[in-house]
Amino acid sequence: MTHASDNFVALVAILVIFGMPLAYAMMNRMAAHQERIEMIKRGIVPPPDPRAARRAQRAGYDPFVYSQMQQPYAMHDQSPQYPDRVLRKGVTVAMIGLALLIGLSFIDPGHPGPWLLGGLIPLFVGLAQIILALMSGAHLGVFTLQGPPPVQPHTAAPPPPPPPYQEGPYGWRPGSTTELEPPVGPPDVRP
Q1: Global confidence as pTM
Q2: Could you say which of 9, 98, 104, 130 has the lowest number of CB atoms within 10 Å?
Q3: For residue 125, is it within any domain?
Q4: Is the domain of 54 the same as that of 95?
Q5: Average pLDDT in the 57-77 region?
Q6: Structural domain boundaries, residue 21
Q7: Cβ(153)–Cβ(114) under 8 Å?
Q8: Is 141 left (phi over 0), alpha (psi -120 to 50) or beta?
Q9: How far apart are alpha carbons 104 and 164 in whole angstroms?
Q10: 3 state SS of 29
Q11: First-to-final CA distance of the chain
């Protein structure tokens, strides 16, 4: 009897540990999808998926390009900083791979082994990214620190003229007094 109940407890524990987060993720995605569909039905342009927008910005693309298009399906050029970002990422990955390669070479000095692949693979992935970035037009050169942009003289247009006074019972009318009228009291209803 205890053997069956132990199996049942283990089964319930596995379902709770793995099933509950999975069910939560599925329900969350379904609710987000339903929200986007309802926004589209009501004529509202939904914002991009936040995770996809962050990935696009890291890659150098503008995630809001589709909501800013003048004509449907217009082609927009990719960001001019994209090759420079790939170059920066490639240098980072290559340096991490080099550091791992140096660190793993101390396991058995003088005798290379398969453990060195842990450093060689990221090293060559980084080198491939550097080569592709340079072929795409990345700029190598002296990195300069840019300060704040120069201050432009204030050339703002004069403020627009005030709107015409609103006519009607609720509009403000210029006159001899600007005091408010006393509010109307409640009706006098006594039994």
Answers
A1: 0.39
A2: 9
A3: yes
A4: no
A5: 57
A6: 7-59
A7: no
A8: left
A9: 78
A10: helix
A11: 77
d(C-alpha 91, C-alpha 80), whole Å: 19
Q: How far apart are CA 154 and CA 131, in angstroms?
A: 45
Q: Judge whether 122 and 93 are in contact, CB under 8 Å.
A: yes
- Look at 183 and 112; give whichever has higher pLDDT: 112
Structure tokens at 120: 């060689």
Task: Report how far residue 112's alpha carbon sits from residue 149's, in angstroms, rounded to the nearest whole number.
Answer: 52
Question: Residue with structure tokens 């005091």?
Answer: 179
- Is 18 a member of any domain? yes
% the chain with pLDDT above 70: 64
* 160 found inside a domain: no
Q: How many domains does the chain have?
A: 2
Tell me, yes or no, whether 50 lies in a domain.
Answer: yes
User: Can you say how many angstroms the Cα of residue 86 is from the centroid of all Cα atoms in its chain?
Assistant: 18
- SS3 at position 124: helix
Count other C-beta atoms under 10 Å from residue 96's C-beta.
15
